[in-house]
C-alpha cells in the first residue's frame, strides 16, 4: 500500500451531505431499534487495488465500503456513489484513483462556507491528498436537502453554491477545478426542493456540470438513495467526468 500511495493518483474530492457519504443499504434493526448497514456491496462497488481513499488520519489506504465511515461518524454510513464512480473511471485514467471523502450528513450549505469547520477540513484534506504526488481532478458535490426547509434558504442556495465553487478553487489554487454537482432527489419541502434543484441545474460557471438524481429510487425514509440508485449515480457522475473533463486517450 505504501508503494501505491507514492504512485500517480487522479484525485477526487467527495463532499456534501448524507447522500454523498452514503445511506444505501442502511436499515433499521427491529430488535434494538437502531440503524445498521446491511453490508451488501454491489459488483460495481467492489474494492480494487487501484482505488484508494484518504482516511480521517490523512493516510492513503485501499478504498472499501463504507468509505465515509470515519468521516461522517455521527450516523451509520452505507453505500454512496464514490466506489461506483471510481470503478467506472479507473480504466480511463493514469495511475490510481484517489478518493477524498469529506461529506457529513445533515449539513446545510452555510456550514460549507469558507471559515466553517466542514469547509476548512475539506480544504485541509484536499491539500494533504497531493503531498506525496497526484493531482486533484474534480470535486463531486451532493448536498442541498438540508436547504429545503425554508424559502430563505432555498432562495439563497444558488449564490451560496457559486461562492463555494469560487472559494474552493481559489483556496486550492485550481481556478479551473471541475465541479460535478448532483441535483437533489429529495428534500424536506417539495416546493423549496424544486427551488434548490432549479439553482443546481442552472449554475452557469465554467467547468461545472450537473447530473440529476431525480427519479432514482429512495430508501423507505424517502430521503436517501437506495443502494442500486447510488450505483447508478456513481456511473452518472463518471459519465459526466469522462464526457466533460477527462483528457482524450
Automatic annotation (TrEMBL):
<feature type="domain" description="Sialate O-acetylesterase">
    <location>
        <begin position="9"/>
        <end position="243"/>
    </location>
</feature>
<dbReference type="GO" id="GO:0016787">
    <property type="term" value="F:hydrolase activity"/>
</dbReference>
<dbReference type="InterPro" id="IPR052940">
    <property type="entry name" value="Carb_Esterase_6"/>
</dbReference>
<keyword id="KW-0378">Hydrolase</keyword>
<dbReference type="InterPro" id="IPR005181">
    <property type="entry name" value="SASA"/>
</dbReference>
<dbReference type="Pfam" id="PF03629">
    <property type="entry name" value="SASA"/>
</dbReference>
<protein>
    <recommendedName>
        <fullName>Sialate O-acetylesterase domain-containing protein</fullName>
    </recommendedName>
</protein>
<dbReference type="InterPro" id="IPR036514">
    <property type="entry name" value="SGNH_hydro_sf"/>
</dbReference>
